[in-house]
Amino acid sequence: MPSQEGCLKSERNIQAAIRVALSKYGICFRLNVGQFKTADGRYISSGLPRGTSDLLFIGYGYIAFIETKTAKGRASPEQLRFIEQMRKYGHRAGIARSVEDAMMIIGASKEDAGNEDASD
Asked: Total structural domains in the chain?
């Protein structure tokens, strides 16, 4: 059976695992951005501005922005600027390559991860 680490190699899987884990502490949304082609062949972008983090976490009295990356993934200059700007505004923001990274960004400890009553 593959290890949990091996199962989380794709950014999509990392995001899903983070969303499940953080649900014990607040609400975690995936921030969608997309592009589609119209019937006349034009491409239209929709959603949030370029660089906006993948996940928005809403905790008790604070929010956090989480950019998910694989072990080898690199943040774009726009993503790094967004994270920096959110931190300047006093919000928690960072890059998570694992559930543990995301827990650090929101300020939850490893001890909290095993505590089912952490959000009470």
From this structure: 1
